[in-house]
Structures are given as structure tokens and as C-alpha cells.
Amino acid sequence: MHGSRRVKIVDVAAAAGVSVTTVSHVISGRRPVSAATRARVEDAVRRLGYQADPSARGLRTQRTDTIGLVVPDITNPFNTELAAGIQAIAYARGLLTVVCEAPITGGPRLPAVLGQLTARRLDGIVLGRFGAQRADLDLIAASGTRLVRLGTRIADGPGDVVRGAETEGMRELVRYLAGEHGYRRIGFIGGETGVEPGGERYEGYRQALAEAGRTVPEDLTVWTGFTREGGRAGAARLLDAAEPPDAVVCANDLIAIGALDVARQRGVHVPGRLAVTGYDDIDAASMVSPALTTVVNPAREIGRSAARLLIDRLDGDDGPAREIVLTHQVVRRASA
Amino acid sequence: MHGSRRVKIVDVAAAAGVSVTTVSHVISGRRPVSAATRARVEDAVRRLGYQADPSARGLRTQRTDTIGLVVPDITNPFNTELAAGIQAIAYARGLLTVVCEAPITGGPRLPAVLGQLTARRLDGIVLGRFGAQRADLDLIAASGTRLVRLGTRIADGPGDVVRGAETEGMRELVRYLAGEHGYRRIGFIGGETGVEPGGERYEGYRQALAEAGRTVPEDLTVWTGFTREGGRAGAARLLDAAEPPDAVVCANDLIAIGALDVARQRGVHVPGRLAVTGYDDIDAASMVSPALTTVVNPAREIGRSAARLLIDRLDGDDGPAREIVLTHQVVRRASA
DNA sequence: CTGAAAGCGCTTACAG
DNA sequence: CTGAAAGCGCTTACAG
Questions:
Q1: Which nucleotide is nearest to B6 if distance is taken from CA to C1'?
Q2: What is the pLDDT of residues A313-335, one digit of tens each?
Q3: Which CATH number characterizes residue A284's domain?
């Protein structure tokens, strides 16, 4: 049932009439080989369909040619785009990418997942937004696995960083609400407290209000979860306030979509009586109605940059830690 | 422990005062070990933080403990759910899952991706919906990699199959439109012709009309692409027909969402003047308004079943090829 | 119940 | 420009 005997490097050597040393070098290109010999070896490789055994190679080289992406939610469209960006770059380099989920609550927790991945001796790990413990990060770094963190600050731990300019993006969005549009009571619905990108985005909201000479209306700030459910709960709370908001800034699009649900259900017109904004610009942002005013989070490009950074490191770049910041872009649609 | 020397099995053996053979057997549980010895070894493993090198193990066992999922579009929510289902089962078994994209058009093509994966000696592959060549499939099977195909028929190639009851699901949906609801002119917007799951779903539509003693209104059938854009183009065509439809059945949710766009833009009330239905029940289906009436495609459950099937095979099940069919479920919301 | 040793299939110093 | 051989870190017959 299982195919014939796998062809190995000795078979190729025999077919080409050379040593396995030479076959190996033809394949890797790591030392000069005469044109004639090279041709014979390449021909044998092709004829026999030889593909080196990755376990044997990995045992020798101490490399797995595999990198990992760890995210809290594999079905979140932002993370999916991220994965697509990483894969595009990694695939071209012959690196395999494994995407692992470590939910914030429920399911295998982050330390357990990171443990699995270091056990697998991955060459590098891209760590999606997380409230990761410093100890977890140090464990990765200590294991020799290269690390790229997403959406946090370079000072927060080992490894390189790629992030969007989130504070700036949110500041511009809220500046637009508070200035041009003249909304007076602007509330905020965040995700889980302490989980990025909540802090960055809240900070942008705060700064924009401060610029406009206002303070954060504490009674209009709620922290829930980065989900549609969270948005529903948060919006319900805000609309029940003694003095309800005329605009609500949400920490991501899913929360905003939940807020839209509540507004529709209660007959609150958007944006007439309540403006609603999101963050990320996931596909659904333009599918709901009214379509969401939001900020583009360049997920795919973040993924590409992270993969390039990782590959540089694997190629021996041992320079100081780097931080790559990608620009934001506000998208005005119908909801605000 | 600055990424210095990795601890290996000899270190554990030395620390526990036993042979590496015994350490290996304590870990694998493949032969009896006295309780006292076992305790000492387990203690040493814990103290030293030992994790077996997967390359070394793989070289010996000829296993990679890794499975692959290949899909045409990694950002499609259906495929994401599929991946989540597979991973949940695989992770619990200590199997790593790699998700690879092989676009129908553009990007690395299917044979190239399958080549990469067989080179990696994956233990098993789950192949998402595809117009895969028989030769590609035979290549996988011949390499000893176990194969599960999704959404096709068992007779179409080697390996096992998992699929939803799509013809049945669509038949029930259209039966509901044509019977209970009394829609008279029911149009159909399909994706690319010849690409699954288009055929299955069209067939269900056709059967339901036949049951109701009607024929397919040829002027109300259009084939575009499985995207929101495709839905817009298709709906525009149908609404421009000499005798427009009062209901339009779409081959998936994205198409239906595009149809909703066109209806809104033209001021055609849904479902009052035009009913719209989708298929898959992706997250966005309940986010748009009116919320989509659609059919649940149990993506996550399909993933779970595929992973279980694969694991059975890896555990030595050499029985005849199996086909698992999962039931459908119509979800009635506001759009029809 | 336990251990010594072969060998999985590569890559890479070392040698010519 | 090329080859013989060591060795990467495990698992598993084989032996006691």
C-alpha cells in the first residue's frame, strides 16, 4: 500500500556515479562542482524524483525550515490576512508556516502552545497580539528561536517588532469625529483590558480628546471583549447611561458591528442619533449597513514585513532589535 | 540557559542514573518500566525541561507528526473554520497542522504546493475543494501520505472523503421558497462554472423546482464568481431581465451579500420585492441587513471529521476508503 | 525490568 | 574539483 522504497541520496549518487558528498553539494550549491558532474547529478535527481528527507537534514543542520504564527483567534479575519502575508513570503523561501491558535480564554493557553512550538524547534515565531508574559517571551528567545512580536513595543521584550501606527490612526479618526463632525459625547468600547491592541487604540482616543480640550468621559468608557458579542454588551451599557453618547468609538470592527446590532434593535438611527466607528477594516466592515467608518489595519503587509524580518535573522542578521511601524489610513463610510 | 546547549536524552539518562533506552521508553510508554525508575526519569525530564528533538525522532520513526490542509483561499471564512476544526483535533493528538494556499488562479498552483508538502513528508493531507487532477491525487497516495478529500465523491480518486449534503441542503431551501413562501420566479446566481461546490448546489435548486412541477427559468440563471463582486454583477443582470425574479438563490453567502448590495442601491426591498438566499452561513451572513436566510455548511465539523479520519489511518486503520456525509441545516433569517 | 549498540538519511569538517 | 567518514539525537531490535 505504501509506495515503493523512497529514493535517498545514495541512490542518486549511484545513478550519477559520484559520491553522496557531491550530490549534497550540487543540491545546496555550497561548493563548486564541475559543470559536467553537476549536469549528471541534476539529471539523476530529476529522473529519480529525489527529495531530501527533511528530518535527516534537520537533524544535521539544526534547522526545521519552519516558522510559526501564533494568534488568539484563527478565524478572526485580521489574523487570516496576517497569515496570508507571512505565507506568501515564507513559501517563496521554502519555509513552511504553521498557524497556531492560543485563545485568550478557553482552549490551549499561550504558554502551552509556545511550549509545543519550541519543542518542535521552529526556526522562528511570529507572535500575534497578546498579553504575553515576559517570561514566555524570554523562554522563546532562550531556546534560540527567532522572535517577531506584533503590535507591541520594542522595549516590552526580546525580538523584533512590527506594528501599525495604531495610536495615530485612532487619534486621526477621533479628531475627525470631535472636530469636523462636532460630536459632543464620544464614548469608547474596548476589548479585554490589558490585551493589545486595546491600549494603543484607547490612547489615540484619549489623545484626540485632549487635543480638542476635552477629557475622557469616564461614564462612557467600557471594556468588554474583541467580539461582536462584546460590542453588543458594551453598546447596551452606553445607551443606558444617564447621559448617552452621540458617538461611540470601538476598539475593533467586530465590536462596532455589535454596536450596530444594538442600535438597530433599539431603533437608534446611525449615524443620525449615534455615530459608530470601528478599527481594522475587515471585509465585513463594508458589508454591514450602514457601512462602517473605520481605520485600515494593513494586516497582510504586517505579515509580509514580519516574515522578511524573520528571514533576515535566519540568514544571520545579528544586528540590534528592529521595530517596523506601518502607517494607518482612515476610511470614511456611512456610520460616522 | 541562554540558548546554550540543548538538553538531550543522554543528559536525562545521566541525571536519572538510567540508560537512554529506559528514558525513551518512559516517555513513549512502549514498554513497562518500574514505578521507581519511572518516577526518577520523569523528575529528571521535568527538572531539565527535556523535549525530544523532532528531527531525530522523525528520522528514526519516519513520521513528522505533521498534517497539511490545502485550500484555494486561506482568507475565505469557510476555509478558516475548516482549519480551526482540523487543528482542534490535531493539536490534542500532538500533531502540527500546516495550512497551505493554492489559488485556483494566480499564486503557486496546486501541483507545486502538493510537491512541497510531499517533500516535507507530511503524515497526512486534507485537500479542500478543488478541481484536482487525478494524477496529483495519485502522487500523494503513492508517496505514502494519507489523504482525505473534501467535498467530492469517493469514486473520484484515492483516499477518504468528507462532505456536506449540499444538494439536499439547497433542495430544502428552494423547496421552502417555492412551497411555503410561494415565490414564483426564482433565479439562481452561481460561481465559476465547473468549480465545486457550484454543481452540487445548482443541482439541489434544480431538483426542488422539478419537485414543484417547474423548470429552471433559463433567463434567470447566471454564472459569475464566488465573491461579493460576482453577486453584484449577477444580481444586476437578473434585475434587468425582461421579467425579473421575485427571489434569487445564490450559490454562496458572498454572492448573496453582493445581491443585497444591488437591491439596496436600486431601492428594491428585500424580502418584500426580492427574496435573497445564500449558502454556508459565514459570520457575515448574520451581520448584513436584512440578515441572510441561508444553509449552514458545517465547516468546523467537516474539519473535525477529516482530522479524525486521518488520525485513524495514521493509527493503522487500513480498511476500505470511507465517505462521511454531514447533514445540512436551513437557517431562516430576514432576507427570504 | 533494563541496557549496549545499530542505524535512520542527511551535511560538513577533513583530506587529497 | 572530489570523496570517505564522522556524527546530528533519537528509537528499537536484540540480549540479558
A1: D9
A2: 999 898 999 999 999 999 999 99
A3: 3.40.50.2300
